[in-house]
Amino acid sequence: MHIRGDHAELVVGGRLDVRSAADARTVLHSAVDDGAGDLVLDLSELDSWDATGLGVIMGAHRRAGRCGRRLVLRDVPPQMQRLLVATRLHRILAIEGGIGVETLPRV
């Protein structure tokens, strides 16, 4: 897993899972705490995430809200869009451009 960027926009790549969760949480929380306005997470380079990785995203979302910020997901890969829809988290998280639920392939 790799994360690069600053307190306004981060690009997350690789696998966001139980092995990388602690490092990702540290980077995301620092970005939330050190910035203002929207924090954009570009997920275009993300290969996969598991429940722990999704928990890291939700924790950053909650922390951003407490800091008066908004976490915005950008370029969410289709397989992860399906997971957000299945868990109904697409209704809670800010997703740039939204998710076209009707256009997602059925599993």
TrEMBL record:
Entry-linked CDD domains: STAS_anti-anti-sigma_factors
STAS domain sequence ranges: 1-107
Pfam families named in the record: STAS_2
Signal peptide: none
Alphabetical list of InterPro entries matching this protein: Anti-sigma_ant (IPR003658), MlaB-like_STAS (IPR058548), STAS_dom (IPR002645), STAS_dom_sf (IPR036513)
Family: Belongs to the anti-sigma-factor antagonist family.
Protein name: Anti-sigma factor antagonist
Source organism: Streptomyces ziwulingensis
